[in-house]
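Everyone, carefully examine this protein record:
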Amino acid sequence: MAKPRKHKVKKGEDIAKIAKSYGHASGGDIFYHGYNKALRKSRKSPEALTVGDVLVIPRTEAENLQALLWIAQTEAERDLSQGLLARADEFSRKAAAATKQYNNNKKYCDMMVKEIEKAAKDIDGMLVTVDTINTVATMFVGLGAITKRSSLAAKATGKELAAINKEAAGIAKGMAKKPIKDGAAKKGIEYLKTDKDVSEVGKRVAYAAEIGMSVTSPSFWAKGLVAIWNGKSLGEALAWDPVRELNKQANKVKIDYGKRNAELFSAIKGLEKSASKLIGMVKDAESRARKLSKSLEAMPA
């Protein structure tokens, strides 16, 4: 807390000399100031001052202006600090949200890759223990027979449609009796047992395999069927390696999520750097405000 200055009159001093030593234009600025009201009761004029009298010295006009300037600067620095702090907090929150997304992406990517690699491992084991050509060929021929009836089913109605569906179901059941352990054909049979239009099965098996699709779905084997429909031989169609395809899908997932997270990582680092820079600016502003406050405290009242 700033305190007023006091001056004890010495021998040989007058009010003009005292005023000049403190930077006041005239002695009246000191003697007639409110600080010296009590003194004026015993000393009616500045000329009446005597050795030992104590004068309270007010601020000069320049000192008052300096104090106002420092007060304004202190308030500005504090406002700046608050604004910068709010901005830094915004960047920090965005960085936290991006970090959460980054971690979620990594978790989801790992989960998908794990599922795909598990599927590849399962089907790889199946292909090793079963006569691959006979197994897959039987399934392709069976599903091919079913899909050929889809065009008829699409145009048929009533009893004719029921007969086609029954025939398709019979083909599927025949497939199930073969030594097929992969379960893809079984999934197709389950679908047919719901008495749905066989043309829908045709659409399903024609749908290209998507990332993470279960090997128990007939759609997973669609690429081989598409190859047959496109005029390729059964042998060429069977050259499609589902294990290799799954591994490619796993790598694609890693690459895709790797790119996403690389962009997120760059954004996170940028946000964190900006937030850190702003925090540094906040500290600088707060430091300047403290220095100004100390300067004000050191000033006379």
In short: Confidence is low (pLDDT under 50) at residues 127-138, 175-189, 195-229. The first strand starts at residue 5 and ends at 8. The chain has eleven helices and two strands.
